């Protein structure tokens, strides 16, 4: 077989931009909307291990199960991977354009500092669950410590941190099993998650600002660094981006297939158990229900990477078509190119509709209606992104962040 016969073309859009990352970001925004909107349902009782209501119609309960299995804690590792992958792409493209290493580092540092500020404003004005700050902090630390490290170093650190997560999860599970088996008396569990959702039940917007800003730094530090999931996802993305795994998925089809199968199998299997616990089928005592957020966070790392791999495979299939990507994938990639703007737009729409200081629909909607609202908000962002794509314009948030990070040059 000649060498030309094994050449696999990169999966790219018509304009030369890699298809897989934008495609994944476009769908990720839908998953983010489905994951975030339940936090606004301040009017319903929740359990220890989830913000989803513990009541509702049969349809509501089915929606809760699907979101727990496929969405909750699976989205932010996916976001973290794509964020880390984009860092390497930006670093590479700026160097190729003639910038020196120190200048590129300054641009990245300014970008991540501005992400922290954007996140603080986002939390103060609208949404305490902002993730921009967490990724801004992770970017500051991980770029400084790892961007120029060897591939072997990245792999070792990612494996070590993943091992710590898995061992910690197994210890938590074994502790919970022991407590139940030994019938150790424990005080009733207190739902920290319910106290967070209660922020959206504050009827005065000025009074809601301080509680949101009080919770936000804990999320930034815990999710951005201490939880280890985001650092593992970002380091894995650094390693993958150097190999152009998403730019050239055809060359890495076996790796992507394995990651997709194993990652989603691990995440969805745990999600089924968690969903059964939430629905009251397993009968797990509330005193040990705290173990499920732990298992969901760790398995969510595998799920997030699995989703990224799936979209890499989808991009490979789309790029092999003679007609190129169709209108649906074109719309999704338009959203992916403007993921920051579309992410912020979700809060601009959802917070005034659902929070008590706005229309207060969060006290009345069930899980199914809230999921339908999330899909509708995402579709609005798709329409806006497609309009901007046709006009040849970036998203407004991307334009501002780029200007602040790089200047007017």
Keywords:
409 residues; mainly alpha; 15 helices; 0% strand; disordered N terminus
Draw up the topology in text:
Blueprint: H1 19-36, H2 58-70, H3 75-96, H4 101-125, H5 132-146, H6 151-181, H7 192-197, H8 205-226, H9 229-242, H10 253-278, H11 291-319, H12 327-337, H13 339-354, H14 367-391, H15 396-406
Helix pairs in contact: 1-3, 1-11, 1-12, 1-13, 1-14, 2-10, 2-14, 3-4, 3-9, 3-11, 4-5, 4-8, 4-15, 5-8, 5-9, 6-9, 6-11, 9-11, 10-11, 12-14, 13-14
Description of the molecule:
With 409 residues, the chain is mainly α. It has one domain (11-404). Helix content is 69%, strand content 0%. The chain is built from 15 helices and no strands. Helix 4 (101-125) runs antiparallel to helix 8, helix 5 (132-146) packs across helix 9 and helix 9 (229-242) runs parallel beside helix 11 (291-319). The longest helix has 31 residues, at 151-181. It is globular, with a radius of gyration of 21 Å. Mean pLDDT is 90; it is low at 1-9. Residues 240-407 form the DUF418 domain. The chain crosses the membrane at residues 23-42, 62-88, 131-147, 154-182, 215-240, 255-276, 288-314, 340-359, 365-388. InterPro entries: Bact_Transport_Assoc, DUF418. Keywords: Membrane, Transmembrane, Transmembrane helix.
């Amino acid at each position: 077989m000649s060498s030309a016969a094994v050449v696999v073309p990169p999966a790219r859009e018509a304009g030369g931009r890699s298809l897989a990352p934008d495609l994944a970001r476009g769908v990720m925004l839908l998953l983010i909307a489905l994951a975030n909107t339940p936090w606004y349902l301040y009017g319903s009782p929740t359990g220890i291990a989830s913000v989803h209501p513990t009541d509702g119609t049969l349809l509501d309960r089915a929606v809760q199960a699907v979101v727990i299995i496929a969405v909750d804690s699976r989205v932010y590792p996916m976001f973290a991977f794509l964020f880390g992958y984009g860092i390497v792409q930006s670093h590479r493209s700026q160097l190729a354009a003639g910038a020196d290493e120190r200048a590129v580092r300054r641009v990245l540092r300014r970008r991540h500092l501005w992400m922290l500020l954007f996140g603080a404003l986002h939390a103060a004005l609208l949404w305490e669950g902002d993730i921009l700050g967490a990724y801004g902090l992770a970017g500051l630390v991980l770029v400084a410590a790892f961007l120029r490290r060897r591939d072997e170093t990245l792999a070792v650190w990612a494996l070590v941190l993943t091992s710590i997560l898995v061992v910690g999860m197994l210890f938590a599970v074994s502790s919970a099993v022991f407590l139940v088996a030994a019938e150790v008396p424990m005080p009733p569990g207190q739902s920290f998650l319910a106290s967070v959702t209660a922020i959206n039940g504050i009827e005065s917007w000025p009074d809601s600002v301080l509680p949101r800003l009080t919770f936000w730094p804990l999320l930034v530090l815990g999710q951005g660094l201490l939880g280890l999931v985001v650092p593992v996802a970002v380091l894995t993305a650094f390693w993958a981006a150097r190999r152009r795994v998403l730019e050239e998925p055809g060359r890495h089809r076996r790796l992507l297939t394995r990651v997709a199968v194993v990652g989603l199998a691990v995440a969805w299997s745990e999600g089924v158990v968690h969903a059964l616990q939430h629905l009251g089928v397993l009968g797990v005592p509330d005193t040990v229900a705290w173990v499920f957020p732990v298992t969901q966070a760790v398995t969510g790392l595998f799920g997030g990477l699995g989703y990224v791999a799936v979209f890499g495979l989808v991009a490979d299939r789309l790029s092999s078509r003679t007609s190129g990507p169709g209108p649906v994938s074109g719309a999704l990639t338009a959203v992916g190119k403007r993921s920051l703007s579309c992410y912020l737009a979700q809060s601009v729409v959802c917070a005034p509709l659902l929070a008590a200081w706005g229309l207060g629909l969060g006290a009345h909607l069930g899980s199914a209606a809230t999921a339908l609202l999330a899909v509708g908000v995402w579709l609005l962002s798709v329409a806006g992104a497609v309009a901007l794509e046709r006009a040849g314009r970036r998203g407004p948030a991307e334009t501002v962040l780029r200007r602040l990070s790089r200047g007017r040059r």
